[in-house]
Amino acid sequence: MTDSLSLPAGPMGQWPQLEPGWVWLCGAGPGDPGLLTLHALNALRQADVVVYDALVEDTILDWAPQAERVYAGKRGGKPSAKQRDISLRLVDLAKEGKRVLRLKGGDPFVFGRGGEEAQTLIQHGVPVRIIPGISAGIGGLAYAGIPVTHRDVNQSVTFVTGHDQSGETPTSLNWKAIAEGAQVLVIYMGMKHVERIATALLDAGRPADEPVAVVCNATTPDQQVLETTLARMTADIAASALEPPAILCVGRSVLMRQVLDWQGLAAGQQPRNLDPLNRGRPAEVS
Ligand SMILES: C[S@@+](CC[C@H](N)C(=O)[O-])C[C@H]1O[C@@H](n2cnc3c(N)ncnc32)[C@H](O)[C@@H]1O
Predict the structure, then answer these.
(1) Which GO terms describe its molecular function (predicted)?
(2) Is 111 in the pocket of ligand 1 (CB under 6 A)?
(3) Which of 76, 258, 262, 267 gives 272 a disulfide partner, CB atoms 3.0 to 4.6 angstroms apart?
(4) CATH superfamily ID and name for 137-266
C-alpha cells in the first residue's frame, strides 16, 4: 500500500469534504491509476467505505487505506450482485452515517448504470456528488493511438453498447441507421455479440474492408490491440483468444494508429506510415 500521493491545493484553497451520510459516485477511469481525477483522489482520501466495480485497479483502492472495501463487480455471464441490491446497499451505508465512495470503471454515466444508482440514492434522500471519469471509449482508444475524432475522418462519433439489460444485442438499436449514420463507431461490451454486430453493419452497407481495432484491457499493463476489418473481425477475434474488457472501434480513425501508436514508438518501434490517411501533407497544416 502507498499513501505517498498528496493533493495540490484545491480550488479556492480547499477540496470538497466528503461528509458523513453522503455518497460520491465517481469514475475511476479505464484502468491506469494515473488517469484518476484529483476529485477522485480527494474522495479516496476521505471515504469510510469504497464500493467498487470489477474493473477498478487495486492500486487505486490502495489510495484509500483507511476505507472498508465492498466489491460490487458485475462481469458478463458470471454470478454477480444485482443492480438493485447494490443501489440499496449504498443507501444503507449512507444512512449509517458513512462517507461512501462509489467507484466505477471509466465514467459512471457512460454505460455504467451510474444514473440508476444516483436516482435511487436521491429517491431515498441521500445526498450525492458525481465525479466524472475518463471513459474507456475515449481514453482507452487514446492509449492505443487512436484519436476518437480526427479532422480528416469524422465530425461525429457514436458510442454504442453491444448488449442490453438482457445480455442480448440491444434490440432498441436501429443498426441500419447506425451503420448508415455513424462516421466512427465505438462499441462497448461488444465481444460477446461481435458476429451479430459485424453482420448487422455489413448487411447495412458498411464496407467489408473498413478498419476495426479491438482494444483489450486498455491503459493497463495487459493492454492488447488487434487491428482487423469489419469482414474479418469475428474470425480474427476468435483466433486471437482476446478476452473482454474490450472496446471495438470501427472507422478510418483506426488507421491513425499506424502513426500514433505512441506506446510502440516509446518501445523503440518506427511509425508504420507517417500519412496513413493519404492526405499528402503534414497533418498539422491548417
Ligand atoms: C459496464 S461498461 C462500463 C464502461 C465505463 N463506465 C466507461 O465509461 O468506460 C464495461 C465495458 O467498458 C469497456 N471497458 C471498460 N474498461 C475497459 C478497458 N480498460 N479496456 C477495454 N475496454 C474497457 C468494455 O467494453 C467493458 O465491457
Answers:
(1) uroporphyrin-III C-methyltransferase activity
(2) yes
(3) 258
(4) Tetrapyrrole methylase, C-terminal domain (3.30.950.10)
